[in-house]
Structures are given as C-alpha cells and as structure tokens.
Write a structure and sequence with these properties.
alpha+beta, Alpha-Beta Plaits, four-stranded antiparallel beta sheet, 3 helices, 36% helix
C-alpha cells in the first residue's frame, strides 16, 4: 500500500544524560498523552547515531542523535490528516520534554507491506 514514512532526527543530545531507555520513555510519554486525547498511538522505531557537523553549525549539534522512524499505517488510522496531526503533537511533546533541541523531519512516500503473525 502507498503510505508515508517519517524520519525524526533529534541532534545534539548528551549521551551521558540522554540514554536509549530515557528516549524510549520520553516517546512513550508523549505518545500516550496524544493517544488519550485522539485515540491514535504513534508507533516509532528508535535508532541512535552520531551527528558530525564540525564548525559550520556549531559544536552543540555534534553528538548523539536520536532517529525515530514512523510509518503511517492506513489500516490502523484511515485519515492521513488525523495521523499527521497526532504525529505532530507527539514530536512537539518529545521536543518539550527534551528542552526544544534541534530537530529535522523528512516525510517520504513509500510502498508499505506487512504480514501479521499467524
């Protein structure tokens, strides 16, 4: 099926403070809050990487980067507009908890297939 994949990269995180388990709890907290008001839970895959930007953007962006991958599943949430609004609320909630760090988002059109466990 045709759908959208969102990639949310949050840069400049301090690994001595922001761990994977903290990032998971932060996403879950924001997603549960949005789900309570919209009925839409925004799932995500979390990957960690390291952003190297040198002097051009400033040393505060060098460091741990959290990459959240989100796929809109139209079978679960029929309305793209409703999903997108829920997604936006979750990302804003995560940013608020983390102190509004540098974030970039990409949205890609993709073909998405999945198989349920039998």
């Amino acid at each position: 099926m045709r759908t959208k994949r969102y990639t949310v990269a949050i840069a400049g995180l301090m690994p001595e403070i922001v761990t994977q388990s903290i990032l998971i709890k932060i996403w879950e907290k924001a997603a549960k809050k949005v789900c309570a008001s919209t009925g839409i839970y925004v799932n995500a895959w979390l990957n960690e990487s390291y952003f190297l930007c040198g002097d051009k953007r400033g040393p505060e962006l060098d460091g741990l980067t959290a990459n959240f991958i989100i796929i809109w599943n139209p079978v679960e949430v029929e309305s793209y507009e409703e999903f997108h609004e829920a997604f936006t609320q979750v990302v804003n909630g995560v940013r608020d908890i983390l102190g509004n760090p540098y974030v970039w988002i990409t949205i890609d059109d993709i073909e998405f297939y999945y198989f349920v466990k039998c």
